Amino acid sequence: MASSILSDCSSSATSRLLPLRRALLAPAPCRFRPTTAPAPPRRPLFVAAQLPLLPRTRGMASVSAATAAASTDSATVSADACAKIIDGKLVAKQISEEIAVEIAKMKDAIGVVPGLAVILVGSRKDSQTYVRNKKKACEAVGIKSYEVNLPEDSSEDEVLKHIATFNSDPSVHGILVQLPLPHHMNDENILNAVSIEKDVDGFHPLNIGRLAMQGRDPFFVPCTPKGCMELLHRYGVEIKGKRAVVIGRSNIVGMPAALLLQKANATVSIVHSNTKKPEEITRQADIVIAAVGVANLVRGSWIKPGAAIIDVGINPVDDPESPRGYRLVGDVCYEEVSKIAGLITPVPGGVGPMTIAMLLSNTLESAKRIHKFK
Amino acid sequence: MASSILSDCSSSATSRLLPLRRALLAPAPCRFRPTTAPAPPRRPLFVAAQLPLLPRTRGMASVSAATAAASTDSATVSADACAKIIDGKLVAKQISEEIAVEIAKMKDAIGVVPGLAVILVGSRKDSQTYVRNKKKACEAVGIKSYEVNLPEDSSEDEVLKHIATFNSDPSVHGILVQLPLPHHMNDENILNAVSIEKDVDGFHPLNIGRLAMQGRDPFFVPCTPKGCMELLHRYGVEIKGKRAVVIGRSNIVGMPAALLLQKANATVSIVHSNTKKPEEITRQADIVIAAVGVANLVRGSWIKPGAAIIDVGINPVDDPESPRGYRLVGDVCYEEVSKIAGLITPVPGGVGPMTIAMLLSNTLESAKRIHKFK
Q1: Which 8-state DSSP code applies to residue B143?
Q2: Angular region, A241: left φ>0, alpha ψ -120 to 50, beta rest
Q3: Which stretches of A235-350 are DSSP H helices?
Q4: What is the ipTM of this complex?
Q5: B49 to B73, B87, B200, B235, B338: CA distances (angstroms)
Q6: Which structural domains are found in chain A, ordered by start?
Q7: Would you say B309 and B343 are in contact if contact means Cβ atoms under 8 Å apart?
Q8: Residue B252, pLDDT score
Q9: Of A87, A201, A286, A319, which is the active-site residue?
Q10: Which tens digit of pLDDT belongs to each residue from A253-299?
Q11: Do B270 and A272 touch (CB under 8 A)?
Q12: Of the partner residues B208, B265, B272, the one whose CB lies closest to the CB of residue A213
């Protein structure tokens, strides 16, 4: 079911109330394009390649022609959109193929395949779907999956016991505890118990600290922000010296995305629920990463002409015309912003597919590090 | 001796060349006020109290009337300056008095005094002076000092052995390794060996990670950025919802200062050597923390009228009129900026005295946490 707190900027949808705590960030109802929006230019700031560029991730193989031709159904593009669409589905497919090649090489050379353990507590439908998708993605590239399903009323100690077992299992190179955990458990205690060397989610504070510090590198970069950066890299977006705005400051996306942009020498500003006039600061950005979880928050009038827009939001909005009664939209009003930006990710088909691809990448990296395989 | 790479914005000094890597950030020679500077208003954005406000640091006692009256020689103020001067020397003195009261109470109640261990390797004159000053400051408030002096050619193992001894010594609550270490030593290995519970410098990546994350708190906040925040708090500067710019992104000041401002709900941007037009973004800030180590970089034309300016820089510039042949200036051109800002720290007498005060505060905090004393 779509939440009733979400808004929509499509011409067919009605605007809805936002909760009070988000009032500062609430967009005005958008049935038509605001008159304050700058006139859309036809010249993007960034020159996007016709197809994603050759991979820049360390240790990854080059893109196959077959994959390049395989781009399918990303987002529907308005006829008057001028932004180049960043095809996350295609890039994720490329990366998975590159990972499969690396894993085959590793297996041939040292007889080891990477292993990923997932711990799922409870029976939330969405969590079960995520875990199933992760398992399928692992199988497709040759990563061995380990799975533990615990009942909702399990104790914290039971979860910790399984983490300890995986920590000491040499065939497991990555451990992932599916969130959210049941309310009676302490997320911090549980996530901190995962060995820093197998924390493929990159959520451990030691990883975040190393990410924040100059001259240090984390063992793992959190998957979604890593996916955002990979999209920027593969589409040839220059980051050094550019102004970047990250909207949202969550521990899992916004904050690490800002640290990554900063490490890549962008000048970074973080916009959040206490920011006054977020549109003014966002309009200065050459690169925008929106990760706030508010449907269609970022409007055309927020965007610098030609900017690169990465939309992390996946928000359900009511849609009586859809068979499910709702559809998924991002934090960015695609209809408006695609007419002004130079590059934009669609929702779905943008950042979404990258998260699992980056999890596979982190698991492979971990196995290579542990086995000193280059 | 003053470095020849530094520039000066006073009317009596000559401008000097900046190194190439800092060219983007290099100020133009400033013998007169640039014509692009906005006209200085007489209305500060922030209403500063006549004396520092009552302390807001947790667990600190209130300011004494005697201390409040004891403000002495901070910076020389131009006759036409309109900014309120933030008196770091006075605030540091207040805080030290508050700490002394707390320590006396703790000793009476549980018979424990906080202990701070300092490890000094080599015989650098500046390091010896810092360590001597820290020892004196500890004695003044009742913190017990432990000191180890090792010769320049000591091995990393010798340093690690002393750290291990202090880690397990229950009378030591804070451990500080004086930087810089000799070149043959690995700073990261040595700093990481300090127990996270005694890392009063707050430089451990785990502490930085906790500082970056929402819903987590570090064991210790690095002393200089903590001092900057304390000055803002005690002078009644509202942070939530304000635009803040941090100039510089070092691990020990700029980066943690940005994380602290962000935790206090400012909208933070970080300006660094790759930032284009740093003056444009700085001019949007209600709060500026300058920590880049370039004399007089921040000019009047960079500042929003009425902004609060915290200048962390301590840079020597040649001054034939001074008995030492040089004098100390900040990263901010005080002469120009004090006419435009609402609040400003002088150099010396601003942030400098706060760093040691915060080290004492962290050591007391540590002892209270270890002994569960409230």
Answers
A1: P
A2: left
A3: 254-263, 278-282, 334-337
A4: 0.82
A5: 19, 12, 31, 6, 17
A6: 20-86+235-355 (3.40.50.720), 111-217 (3.40.50.10860)
A7: yes
A8: 94
A9: A201
A10: 999 999 999 999 999 999 999 999 999 999 999 999 999 999 999 99
A11: no
A12: B208
The residue written with tokens 């500003």 in the block is A269
Q: CB A281 to CB B274 under 8 A?
A: no
Segment B209-261, tens digit of pLDDT: 999 999 999 999 999 999 999 999 999 999 999 999 999 999 999 999 999 99
Tell me the chain B residues in contact with residue A206 when contact means C-beta distances shorter than 8 Å.
Answer: 205-206, 209
Rounded Cα–Cα distance for residues B140 and B96 (Å): 8
- Contact yes or no for A214 and B281 at CB 8 A: no
Contact residues, chain A to chain B, C-beta under 8 Å: 188, 204-216, 240-241, 243, 249-251, 255, 259, 262, 265-272, 274-276, 281, 284
User: Pick the residue with more confidence: A120 or A40?
Assistant: A120
H-run or E-run covering B211: helix B205-212
CB contact under 8 A, B213 and A265: no
Candidate from B215, B262, B269 with C-beta closest to A267: B269
**Residue A122, class by beta-carbon neighbours within 10 Å (0-12 exposed, 13-18 middle, 19+ buried)?**
middle
Report CB contact under 8 Å: A274, B212.
no
- Positive or negative, the CA dihedral B283, B286, B292, B294 is positive
Distance between CA A192 and CA A175 in Å, rounded?
12
B-chain residue closest to A261, CA distance: B270
Structure tokens at A58: 């360390």
Strand locations in chain A (E):
84-85, 115-121, 144-150, 174-177, 243-247, 267-271, 287-290, 308-311, 315-318, 326-329, 343-344
Q: Measured between CA atoms, how close is A10 to chain B, in angstroms?
A: 29
The DSSP 8-state label assigned to residue A271 in this structure reads E
